[in-house]
Specification:
With 328 residues, the chain is α+β, with helices and mostly antiparallel strands. It folds into two domains: 172 residues, Peroxisomal Thiolase, Chain A, domain 1, CATH 3.40.47.10; 148 residues, Peroxisomal Thiolase, Chain A, domain 1, CATH 3.40.47.10. Strand 4, helix 4 and strand 5 form a beta-alpha-beta unit. Helix 3 crosses helix 4 and helix 7 crosses helix 8. The mean pLDDT is 97. Bound molecules: acetyl coenzyme *A. The site of acetyl coenzyme *A (ACO) has 23 residues, from helix 2, helix 6 and helix 7.
């Protein structure tokens, strides 16, 4: 019997070559390896050079997928880029920049803006496009040059972020990893907890803002509390809606923002922390790229086995949050 459904059929990822350790950061700003690691779980992060844009990181991830899976990139007919760090402010979209740089024929190409939850949102959009049969092979990319919007004078935030990209192909197929269900939410009332306060079309008097108003501002404690709460609620919503329990889930792949957030959610849900994949020590927080980078890494390490159930769960600027239930 044919089992053709919207599935992830391939994964890829890329991080820039330059890796900066906590000790190297501590030589430049008032922080320490001990503080960063004990408060976040981060040991190092990869940082792109000045000539590399978000689109270049995305292209490197797509090319890695293409090489490893032996699939030509000109076979995609839709491209969705989840990013908070577009190459240009507004337009052209980073997806259109990628299309041009790769010399792809006319395709559907657009960005989505859902902060660190972007890849989770994009996967559900890709599932719908695939199911509509209007598009055959959809490339979904989470790509971020977060260090470009980081305020390097603010030690509260600058130690947290890194650059990178991860991608997936989604298509109707009887092989691959089924996108079973998704939960997509937002709480816009919490927007000010994590934002770039100025530089858009909303008028804000820059003189009223402490620090660099065109870089990331964050109320770390508020985001932390929100993150633990919604990670739990998303996981509960997904398992209840799909008639299973957290015991039936083999892997949880969380947005990598802080290992303490992940541990707190695991404890509250009474789930063994070993079931949460954590690689924040190497990459720090790469926003919309963190989940696809983790999935690609897990697939490469053969940690994901056919038949396993996997939940992705994330949160970020918006404030947005959500998760996908995948069947490997
Ligand atoms: N090095 C040394 N000391 C520091 C540093 C640093 N890099 N940063 C802050 N401190 C100091 C503070 O100044 C403060 O000192 P004080 O007590 O003398 O004022 C002290 O450390 C404690 O600060 P807290 O804010 O209480 O530290 P906390 O334990 O809350 O950790 C953190 C801060 C890591 C930011 C945490 O709140 C957090 O992870 N929040 C969630 C962040 C997050 O997930 N953001 C991303 C979501 S969206 C996205 O991914 C883009």
């Amino acid at each position: 019997m044919s089992d053709i459904k919207p599935r992830i059929t391939a994964l890829g990822s890329h991080v820039p070559a330059t890796c900066v350790t906590n000790d190297e950061l501590a030589a430049k700003i008032d922080t320490s390896d001990e503080w960063i690691f004990s408060h976040t779980g981060i040991k190092s992060r990869h940082i792109a050079d000045d000539e590399t844009a978000t689109s270049d990181l995305a292209i490197a991830a797509l090319k890695a997928l293409s090489k490893e899976q032996n699939i030509e990139l000109d076979t995609i007919d839709a491209l969705i880029v989840a990013t908070a760090t577009q190459d240009y402010p507004g337009f052209p979209s980073t997806a259109c920049v990628i299309q041009a740089k790769l010399g792809l024929p006319p395709i559907a190409a657009f960005d989505i803006s859902a902060g660190c939850t972007g890849f989770i949102y994009a996967l559900e959009i890709a599932k719908a496009l695939a199911a509509s049969k209007t598009y055959r092979r959809i490339a979904v990319v989470g790509s971020e040059k977060l260090t470009a919007i980081t305020d390097w004078t603010d030690r509260n935030t600058c130690v947290l972020f890194g650059d990178g990209a991860g991608c997936a192909f989604v298509e109707m197929s009887d092989t691959g990893h089924e996108i079973v269900d998704s939960v997509l939410h937002s709480e816009g009332t919490g927007a000010s907890y994590l934002s770039i306060p100025t530089g858009g079309t909303a008028y804000v008097d820059e003189s009223t803002i402490e620090g660099n108003p065109r870089k990331i501002h964050m109320d770390g404690r508020a985001v932390y509390n929100f993150a633990v709460r919604v990670m739990c609620s998303v996981i509960e919503e997904l398992v209840v809606r799909n008639g299973c329990s957290t015991d039936d889930i083999d892997w949880f792949v969380p947005h990598q923002a802080n290992s303490r957030i992940i541990a707190a959610a695991a404890k509250r849900l009474k789930i063994d922390l070993e079931k949460f994949y954590i690689n924040i020590d190497q990459y720090a927080n790469t926003s919309a790229a963190s989940i696809p980078i983790a999935l690609a890494e897990m697939a490469q390490k053969a940690l994901l086995k056919p038949g396993q159930r996997v939940i992705t769960v994330g949160f970020g600027a918006g404030l947005t949050y959500g998760g996908n239930l995948l069947k490997w």
